[in-house]
Amino acid sequence: MRKKVRSLLKWLDAGHKTCPKTQQTLVHTALTPNYVLKSLIALWCESNGIELPKKQGNCRTKKCGGSSLSDCDRTTIGALLDKLTSNDIEQQRAAAGELRLLGKRNADNRVCIAEAGAIPPLVDLLSSSDPRTQEHAVTTLLNLSINESNKGAIVNVGAIPDIVDVLKNGSMEARENAAATLFSLSFLDENKVQIGAAGAIPALIKLLCEGTPTGKKDVATAIFNLSIYQGNKAKAVKAGIVAPLIQFLKDAGGGMVDEALAIMAILASHHEGRVAIGQAEPIHILVKVIRTSSPRNRENAAAVLWSLCTGDPLQLKLAKEHGAEAALQELSENGTDRAKRKAGSILELLQRMEGVDNLQSS
Length: 362
What we know:
Number of strands: 2
Structural class: mainly alpha
Radius of gyration: 24 Å
């Protein structure tokens, strides 16, 4: 993977503006690390007892709490914590940057950085007037939050409002990493409530419209995860989530169709979400997705369509007018199990509607 990244950087440094594989013109040439994906991989490895590759070195290893840590890293963390709590902004910035790298390196460092007491001063630095220090602080908290115990420790020191403030007012990098941090923290159900109550959802939706391509995917994942909690669905609808989701569906080349449909499917289960989605008139787009998209997208589109059509004759009539019946018939035969169930249910509704129309016309 590193070799591929080096090759890609060499390609871009040579002035190329196209993908070396497909030759398609690149929308931009900025390489953005996917912190959420890295976090999920690390979390999976921790849960399954798999150690991520470590850098080679000659340092001896000792225990820090319940984990092992090299002498050099232990000494480094202690020294960095002293700098982190100093009044020198240059030292704070450098220390936060080093802790960011150490927290990214392995699971043992994440445990020991937290046990050394770094979380409270890192949270304090979220309000730093120095943008780079703020970026380092929020990204370090993101890396530390991969550890389940650290999630609780970060929330317990009252970090959520400060992370939301970075999400609203920080640099683009800081905002996107704040979104990724909130996503990581939201794995705990009780945190979904706190994050929603802290005003994160409108800020996430704003970033969903303004962020980088990679950042938008991370933000969408955070919104999806938060919306699992019923109370946050209404907040997302009120904050205007439906309009950008519809735009993502219309702009298939933007690469956000998967995320948009996943969020819409979960919002459509809520009354306010169902009403807002219906008002956006998405039926023709949903039918097109059911005809042409991936199995997962077809499943989510069918779930949204089912929510819209159940109990709403007008939406059901629009579905019929846009050719949903043929698309749903094919989906009922070749879709995923859930897609087949949704397609079958909508087809039954269409048949009942047709039967009523026949009676009325006879």
